[in-house]
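worker-3 :: picked S41 family peptidase
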Amino acid sequence: MFVTLKTKLITPLCLSLPILTLATFNINATTAFNATSAWQEVEHVLTKQYAYFDRLNNANTVLNQFKSKALKAKNKAEFNDISQQLMRTFSDPHLNLGPYDKNDFSVFPTGSDIRAIYQNDQFIVQDIKAGSAADKSTLTLGSAIIKMDNQPIKALVASLFGQGFETLSPQQIEYGVNVVLGGLRKQTRAITFTNNKGTQKTITLAASYDAINALNDGPTLSYRNLDGFGYIRFNNSLGNNQTTASFKKAINALKHTRALIIDLRNTPSGGNTGVAEPILGHFVSEKTPYQTYRTQTPNMAYHKAPMQTAFVTPTKPHYAKPFIVLAGRWTGSMGEGMTIGLDALGAQTVIGAPMADLLGGIKTVTLKQSDAWLEMAFERLYHVNGTFREDFEPHILVIPTDRDHQGADPALNKAIDYLQHSTSM
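worker-3 :: tokens ->
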């Protein structure tokens, strides 16, 4: 299907030395980079296997724009940088192209601790991730971000997409600024902002991955009894097989509570169904559907594929009392799947902010022509009521969700207030 690359031959230096000539050939033979072949491969995989390709209204126009850039790439590194810009136009945190280098931004939302919105030509801090470097700094809600590492935010957002800022959609701008605020991979960040008093400040924050990586050395979840209400918070652990046993231990400890709060606000890295489904099983007494999906294949577009159903089976002990869910900007991928799953299984309500919108179930495809890989959604996921997972929003919106202006936990406080009223009736 793709153009085959030919080996570039090395002319022998001296025909009287055949052994030396052969050795020289083996050492110096290289495969020339062919931008046309590399582009054909990227375009084919993206259009035939990405389940959300049609989510971008002008996707084919965008492809043509990037094609003209990509065909001019002189080497694989330059080609892959252009391809990364193409992927970002879809505003999908699950659509990633690597390998990464020191000049790439941290993966979003794992490498993220500030949530900003674009409003009145300013980038306004809307939420700050609890326990993060930003949370421990002097950055405040409502601050206007001006620069990042001494570069104007608008210019950084535009460079992320390889386009002029004025050509970006509101969705791309919001996605872009929140990727940018995560900083470059494993590097400190200098953020210049104007606070609510109009004072300009510059702060230096630790690499955004540091706080999330520190969780690897601690418990997979935490739990406690809050005056008769059980509370369980996941510590970005939905990909850790030990989490299922930790959750069972928490359920046993909290089985006499009046109700349960399940906090999924710190799951930016997602996880897998092998961890999630046994946890969901504590809330059912029989085999029960928790989400539906369609699978995209090279031969069948997702919208033509049959709708399939994912089920959970009972896990002991069964928690039969009321439960509610907390979700927010750092609820990603499997965290989003668990949120809509718990809603389908009978959660009284979901409280928080719109989630991270990591689209679909993902796979990784090797791009041989450019020595790269593409992580993308090949399954499109749905709530059991037939709506797209990415369209789900908490029933009770609480923004900010992680920290309010007084430093308190607004979503958790709202959950306790909700349960106090609902369980007293």
